[in-house]
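Dear support,

I submitted the protein below through the web form. The confirmation email said the job was done, but the results page showed an empty box. After a refresh the structure appeared. I'm attaching both so you can tell me whether what I see now is the final result or a partial one.
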Amino acid sequence: MTQVSHQQWGQEVGLGCVDLWVLQSALVRVEVLTLGAIIRSVCSRGRDGRMEDVVLGYDDLEGYVSDKRYLGAVVGRVANRIALGRFVVEGEEYRLDVNNGPNALHGGLRGFNKAIWLATAVEGGVQLSLTSPDGDQGYPGEVQVSVSYTLQGETLTAEYQARSTKTTPINLTNHAYFNLTGQGAADVYDHQVCITAQSYLPLDDSSIPSASVSEWKSTSRAEYEPEFKTCNQLCALELKGEIRRVDGTPFDLRKPVLIGPRLKEVPGPGFDHNFCLSSPGDPWTERHAARVCHPASGRVLEVSTSQPGIQFYTANFLDGSMTGKGGARYGKHSSFCLETQNWPDAVNQASFPDCLLRPGEDYQHVTRFTFTTV
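What the results page shows now:
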């Protein structure tokens, strides 16, 4: 039996009241904020029976209002990156604010993570709803979106739904940062990870799937603008991003590997890659996606999802400047994210799974996080 309660948690000028919802089962305790549909904490037991909070976050509302790393939040309208912050849908070009080098990331400058969601109690949890107006952050169509968090025993389920008045790209995920030792621990080098993916997406220097932005021969919108101006030219530049087998690469995580040693083999600052859980055109079904184990504490996190991909991110850009819960300083590799989602830049990649939501269609995906011990 899950107990559900809520209370006002804070108030911000120009933003309004933010509520804290608590979902409590015999095994797991979850806190959710109406700001950004944020998962503020998840407390689970270790082998010794002790409860620890395994999600990074802040002690007060101000931390989340000023946060730039999406801690615990639902990101959208489109999670991950869109090359050069532009795309073409039904012959019309749309331009977004770029907020990650030359690209648009996680919905824009003020995405779903900064909105106050309307909360309603449901059995075993809470449903949070949001209306994204036509033109929000540059995206077409008014979108009605909801995420329901429900807790049953040791499993936290997130169910995402959306409808749109115009054809629009959409890609929703939760950006929780986990450390199974307990939030505030220095790193996740002693965690074992396993991801059930046969393929992954190699990236270019701006973290876009290779053979996309590199072919535009531009690293900034200022350089790019004069060269291509019409929708027809943009459509002609839709390219096939590379889908590479994990065999014989550091991205072969099909068997459990320690994160610390494997990070030394990965080019760049760490993992921030999409792992392909299914192929374009595969039917909608829920699949096991990933398992992370912390042998010392015995805590295990297992993830299943209906999404075609999972972005494994090892907090490469946390730098110790953020003060989190209990005064913790969150540094590089202090946590990991398992962001279940469509593939990055899918709106510009005809060979990737379709990310367009059309009028009259329902967007619906589910992700489950199960917290156990060994």
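Response: this is the final, complete result; the empty box was a page-load delay. The chain has a mean pLDDT of 93.
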